[in-house]
Design brief:
manganese, binds adenosine monophosphate, Protein nucleotidyltransferase YdiU, ATP-binding, single chain, 17 helices, globular, transferase, 7-stranded antiparallel β-sheet, binds magnesium ion, two-stranded antiparallel sheet, alpha+beta
């Protein structure tokens, strides 16, 4: 590994140095060999992956640390938070020259653990491992993981579960909440911290007339694009607190996430989300709200030569681009999913008509797009109680496609509509086996989800494609993990 221990160069008030505390009886879970290669792990590192992914082996070149941050949770100021059960154990340079964080989740309690035990359970570790891989393979910016380990140590949740550790990778573990913590508790650190964020993550902004404004605009842009991509694949993050969004717009900390099966935009997948704040359909507006909170923290960075009111207005202006950026990406992607030309004035309305049918008829989101792609129109209609609505949508659909180059539109559909998503029952089965020390289903899902756009009959199970039976409710996932 080639180290770039840059977070260690920040003022020490921003973190706490400590070593991981290993679990009893650590053992191999799964290893992402392709990612390790991308991260330039040596043969020796690879040989020792279980020790590395279980906190038994750390690196002299990087002193592990827990970061401090704050956040708004479920819309309320939550005060100081921080890495309560994870440590940054390295920052390394990948094959493309990009610096990537290695963060070991479940590594024991830290000064930021509050009431928690500093651990992660096998169930949530596998959920995060597979979801990060699924999103990356779908081309969505997200954390990923080099591997995870299980153990023989019990960890108490609603019931006793097995402790585990995940070696997560991300281009950035700096959260919106980092700025909230600094502003609230150690305001003098703000200029230097912001400067480092720009140098590390948005160097192109250094040459702008006002680098902070250019940086803010970029964070808004990338977050909007990420959320548009979530919406397109039907991904619901589940806990979009400001401490769970980072400044590079790559998905992080998705605990009780879910991929939509039936198209129910107001589905609450997080057990603790009593008000339905973080449903699929709310994600764009919550992203906007989080960024608005975040931008407030940049107000003190007004340059001496600048009018303070103007500065606030300019920051607010950055947020004005959120909605158009989101809509541009969402509409473009949706047209591609539908096999409709994005430039046609009626394409978006037609796509909305299709989504309304999926919602009314409670059809499976992913499979319905695959059926459209495979021109199984009759099958979709057969699943509709309101056949008239389908016929009227379909007339509009054919009308728009009639005069276009259908082959090109069909080719686009195949590039954007996944054959496979990570359905809850798939993860659940993998977890149940893993809890009995059988990781074969994790391996199968890992392989299947490596190429989600390609049909893989030799790897797939019939259940991977099946919509939820109408009498089976969606699962709500507990936040405590
Ligand atoms: P999350 O909702 O998982 O993003 O966690 C919110 C905050 O709680 C973060 O500061 C976490 O580090 C902390 N946290 C969550 N679970 C635990 C745990 N089991 N032990 C210690 N801290 C935790
Ligand atoms: Mg978190």
């Amino acid at each position: 590994m080639q180290f770039n221990p840059r977070y260690n160069t920040l003022p020490s008030r921003l973190y706490h140095h400590q070593q991981p505390s290993p679990l009893k009886g650590a053992k191999a879970g799964h290893f992402n060999a392709a990612l390790a290669q991308q991260l330039q792990w040596s043969e020796e590192d690879i040989q020792h992956w279980v020790e590395i992914c279980s906190g038994q082996k750390t690196f002299a070149a990087f002193e592990p640390l827990a970061m401090v941050y704050a956040g708004h949770q479920f819309g309320q100021w939550a005060g100081q938070l921080g890495d309560g059960r994870g440590l940054l154990i390295a920052q390394i340079v990948d094959k493309n020259g990009q610096t990537i964080d290695l963060h070991l989740k479940g590594a024991g309690s830290t000064p930021y653990s509050r009431m928690g035990d500093g651990r992660a359970v096998l169930r949530s570790t596998i959920r995060e491992y597979l979801a990060g891989h699924a999103l990356n393979s779908l081309g969505i910016a997200s954390s990923n993981a080099v591997g995870f380990t299980s153990s023989e140590q019990g960890v108490q949740r609603e019931k006793l579960e097995l402790g585990a550790m995940l070696l997560r990778t991300s281009d950035c573990h700096i959260r919106l909440g980092h700025f909230e913590w600094i502003n609230q508790y150690q305001g003098d650190l703000l200029p230097e911290f912001t400067q480092k964020c720009i140098e590390w993550h948005y160097p192109e902004c250094l040459d702008a007339e006002q680098p902070v404004l250019a940086f803010a605009a970029q964070v808004v842009q990338r977050t909007a694009v990420m959320i548009a991509q979530w919406q397109l694949v039907g991904f619901a993050h589940g806990v979009m607190n400001t401490d769970n969004l980072n400044i590079t717009g790559s998905t992080l900390d998705f605990g009780p996430y879910g991929f939509l099966e039936r198209f129910r935009p107001n589905w609450v997948n997080n057990h603790s989300d009593y008000q339905g704040r973080y449903t699929y359909q709310q994600q764009p507006s919550i992203g906007h709200w989080n960024l608005w909170q975040w931008l407030n923290n940049l107000v003190p960075l007004c340059p001496a030569s600048y009018n303070k009111e103007q500065w606030k207005e300019d920051l607010a202006q950055c947020l004005e681009h959120f909605e158009p950026t989101f809509l541009e990406h969402y509409k473009l992607g949706l047209s591609q999913k539908m096999g409709l030309p994005s430039f046609h004035k009626d394409s978006f309305d037609c796509a909305m008509a299709f989504l309304r049918i999926l919602q009314t008829e409670q059809l499976d989101y992913t499979q319905s797009f695959i059926r459209l792609q495979e021109k199984q129109y009759e099958q979709i209609k057969d699943d509709c109680l309101d056949r008239r609505a389908f016929e009227s949508f379909f007339a509009m659909y054919e009308n728009i496609r009639e005069l276009q180059d259908a082959a090109e539109l069909d080719a686009q559909m195949a590039l954007i509509n996944p054959q496979y998503i990570l359905r809850n029952h798939m993860t659940q089965k993998a977890i149940e086996l893993a809890e009995r020390n059988d990781f074969s289903e994790v391996e199968r899902l890992f392989a299947l989800l490596s190429q989600p756009f390609i049909k893989q009959p030799e790897l797939e199970n019939a259940a991977d494609l099946e919509p939820l039976p109408s009498d089976v409710p969606e699962v709500m996932v507990s936040c405590s993990s």
